[in-house]
Specification:
Layout (H helix, E strand, L loop, with lengths): L1 H17 L6 H20 L11 H9 L2 H8 L9 H26 L3
Helix pairs in contact: 1-2, 1-4, 2-4, 2-5, 4-5
């Protein structure tokens, strides 16, 4: 739990310290809010993945995975192989897919 929150806060802090003026503030704030809501949903809204998932690391992975789209949105130059706009689009698609997966698992698969 603390790893997920500390990585999230580290990325958000890095964005505000180093990369604040490279992308739209509205888009950045929306990405930070959505990632925060995803993490809150994963950590605090039951049912939880502990004991349900076949692997402890797989269950924790659902909390770490939204960090990747957040990095693509806040730091689009991170992946230099693609255009910055493509990186941001991939980040938003990643958020949509991950949010759909976590909601599906919480309400249909992990039911006690």
């Amino acid at each position: 739990m603390f790893l997920i929150l500390s990585v999230f806060l580290l990325i958000v802090g890095s964005y505000f310290a180093y990369n604040r003026h490279k992308i739209s503030e509205r888009e950045a704030h929306l990405a930070i809010i959505l990632c925060g809501l995803y993490i809150i949903t994963f950590l605090f809204i039951p049912p939880f993945s502990e004991g349900i998932s076949t692997s402890v690391y797989l269950g924790r992975g659902y909390g770490i995975f939204p960090i990747l789209p957040l990095i693509l949105i806040l730091f689009p130059e991170f992946n230099s192989g693609l255009n910055e706009n493509i990186n941001q689009i991939l980040g938003w698609l990643g958020f949509i897919v991950l949010a759909s997966v976590i909601l599906f698992f919480k309400y249909f698969i992990w039911r006690p």
